[in-house]
């Protein structure tokens, strides 16, 4: 495991629970192979993820692009990575230092870069994509000067590659159904092969440089001579019944792995033209295969769901391992196994949700990830809550859903008459959910009681003893109610400078905190609700998205769309720790405490981050 990154004298970034690749139906995913065999690369948003191929829970993230990154590749030496984004910028940065120092930045053309490749001497880079004036370019990695012309295609380039040895050659696959062949350097167009009937999604040279292959939307895989570009053979008739989005050679140059929209991956013997293994990946739309990688003994494919599948040639019926997670923005989080159960040996699970309704359960080290089974939310999950027995969530599909932790599946759904904003659950299993000007009280036996409010509610929290309920409203007030069965009696009102965005109680019930839209965080000491922060905690530059006390109530964490994490001490209100750029260039959307000294955050970078707070 990598050493923790020190943020301040009390906060360390321990690990990143990485995002999955961002996938789009009908588009291939570009994976980067490590020449040293230790890691592999993919992109999501403005981030490049460097994951350990033996243990994917070990991850590093590069976040210096200002816009969406579409591809990243190691240099053959392994010392540098080049990454290209949708605005046409290529950044070349080192892999040795933790800071990933920038070596060069170039803009070959104005438009998205879909793929890139290095020459074997680490001196030149070819890029392909959709520019305003051209679709490809080849340039020096040191100075950025042109070393040839990539011409001959009439539509966007989807894939590029270099021959791995001299004499150098370059190939492109484009949306005009063509494979173009170039000689150099300087690289000049030699010939165009129009054997495919639909978009060419991927072209790849064999490691020994003797052959190259192309895969296209017509399901065909064609093999060409690596030196002359002459067509030699075809695999299958056709190789797949759906579009081919991924193609790669094994290290010996004898076999090819293909990944297709027909929900299969296949391994081919190139010399014999025969099919060796057929991996059926499922029957759901999300089981389409959109990318692949063959690195050492690891055979990997990417599903449309973003899942990373490790394949086993001896057991083609089921992947050896499936790495799950999010590839859309994380919107909510809770941790089961902390409230009401302080046994350090007890199982603790992190539940996180994304705006596509996907809910993932993680173990505390991120080494085990599972999708929650059953009828999931069909829209964004707004909020999570948990007690010592169950986890509940509410979403923009106007439902409250109960998760059975033992079976990791949904066990119950309650339909609401309006769209929920926030949810909490008491230790007596009463669920409180606010929606517009309503508060829903859902009993464990299924009885639902609705109370109409004379203001629009935004956030809700229940006292750990289950005796009081706090509701934040758009009337710039926090309303505190006494709970008596299903009856609510308002007992206190607190004025704020703007409408309330978050309210929360400490686990012991000795503190209460609230945040308003002007980024003010207020803290009160109970039972008198005496304000102790005195309008001092106003450190965020953007809307506050979460407010969470540590398990002992001695720390309070807040996150915001300003990308920052703030830590306050109720017993020392002048002591504030600021973690700026906690999720760099991405809003932080949620947080939850695992222990008194371990905090998790989630953000629009689709990642969870684990922090040590000393």
TrEMBL record:
Signal peptide positions (record): 1-26
PANTHER family, sorted: WD REPEAT-CONTAINING PROTEIN 1, WD-REPEATCONTAINING PROTEIN WDR1
WD repeats: 62-103, 193-234, 237-278
Annotated SMART domains: WD40
Keyword Acetylation tagged: no
Membrane-crossing segments per the record: none
A GO term from the CC aspect: cortical actin cytoskeleton
Protein name: Actin-interacting protein 1
A GO MF term: actin filament binding
Cellular localisation: Cytoplasm
Domain of life: Eukaryota
Gene Ontology biological process: actin filament depolymerization; locomotion; sarcomere organization
Family: Belongs to the WD repeat AIP1 family.
Keywords assigned: Actin-binding, Cytoplasm, Repeat, Signal, WD repeat
Primary location class: cytoplasm
């Amino acid at each position: 495991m990598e050493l923790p990154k020190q943020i301040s004298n009390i906060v360390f970034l321990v690990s990143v629970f990485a995002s999955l690749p961002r996938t789009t139906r009908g588009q291939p995913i570009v994976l980067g192979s490590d020449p040293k065999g230790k890691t592999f690369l993919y992109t999501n948003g403005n981030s490049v993820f460097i994951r350990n191929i033996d243990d994917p829970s070990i991850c590093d993230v590069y976040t210096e692009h200002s816009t969406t990154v579409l591809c990243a590749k190691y240099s053959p030496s392994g010392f540098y990575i080049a990454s290209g984004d949708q605005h046409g910028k290529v950044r070349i940065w080192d892999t040795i230092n933790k800071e990933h120092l920038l070596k060069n930045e170039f803009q070959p053309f104005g438009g998205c870069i879909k793929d890139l490749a290095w020459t074997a001497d680490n001196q030149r880079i070819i890029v392909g994509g959709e520019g305003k004036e051209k679709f490809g370019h080849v340039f020096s990695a040191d100075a950025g000067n042109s070393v040839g012309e990539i011409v001959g295609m009439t539509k966007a380039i989807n894939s590029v590659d270099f021959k791995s040895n001299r004499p150098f050659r370059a190939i492109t696959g484009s949306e005009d159904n063509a494979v173009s062949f170039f000689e150099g350097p300087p690289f000049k167009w030699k010939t165009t092969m129009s054997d495919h009937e639909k978009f060419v999604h991927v072209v790849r040279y064999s490691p020994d440089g003797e052959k190259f292959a192309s895969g296209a939307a017509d399901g065909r895989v064609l093999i060409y001579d690596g030196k002359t570009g002459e067509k030699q053979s075809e695999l299958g008739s056709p190789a797949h019944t759906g579009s081919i989005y991924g193609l790669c050679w094994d290290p010996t140059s004898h076999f090819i792995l293909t990944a297709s929209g027909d929900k299969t991956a296949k391994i081919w013997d190139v010399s014999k033209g025969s099919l060796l293994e057929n991996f059926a990946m499922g029957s759901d739309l999300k089981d389409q295969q959109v990318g692949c990688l063959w690195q050492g003994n690891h055979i990997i494919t990417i599903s449309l769901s973003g899942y990373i599948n490790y394949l086993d040639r001896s057991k083609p019926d089921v992947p050896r391992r499936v790495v799950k997670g999010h590839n859309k923005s994380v919107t909510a989080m809770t941790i089961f196994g902390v409230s009401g159960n302080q046994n350090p040996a007890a199982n603790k699970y992190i539940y996180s949700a994304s705006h596509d309704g996907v809910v993932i359960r993680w173990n505390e080290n991120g080494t085990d990830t599972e999708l929650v089974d059953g009828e999931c939310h069909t829209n964004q999950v707004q909020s999570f809550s948990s007690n010592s027995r169950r986890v509940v969530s509410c979403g923009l599909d106007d439902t409250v859903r109960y998760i059975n932790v033992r079976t990791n599946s949904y066990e119950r759904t309650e339909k609401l008459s309006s769209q929920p904003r926030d949810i909490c659950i008491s230790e007596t299993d009463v669920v409180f959910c606010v929606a517009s000007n309503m508060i829903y009280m859902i009993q464990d036996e299924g009885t639902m009681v609705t109370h109409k409010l004379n203001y629009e509610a935004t956030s809700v929290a229940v006292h750990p003893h289950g005796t009081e309920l706090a509701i934040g409203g758009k009337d710039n007030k926090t309303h505190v109610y006494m709970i008596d069965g299903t009856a609510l009696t308002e007992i206190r009102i607190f004025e704020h400078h703007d409408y309330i965005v978050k309210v929360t109680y400490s686990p012991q019930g000795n503190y209460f905190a609230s945040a308003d839209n002007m980024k003010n965080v207020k803290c009160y000491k109970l039972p008198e609700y005496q304000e102790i922060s005195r309008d001092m905690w106003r450190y965020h530059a953007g809307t506050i998205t979460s407010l969470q006390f540590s398990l002992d109530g001695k720390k309070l964490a807040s996150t915001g769309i300003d990308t920052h994490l703030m830590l306050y001490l109720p017993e020392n209100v002048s002591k504030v720790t600021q973690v700026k750029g906690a999720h760099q260039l991405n809003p932080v959307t949620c947080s939850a405490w695992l222990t008194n000294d371990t905090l998790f955050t989630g953000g629009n970078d689709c990642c969870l981050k684990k922090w040590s707070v000393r």
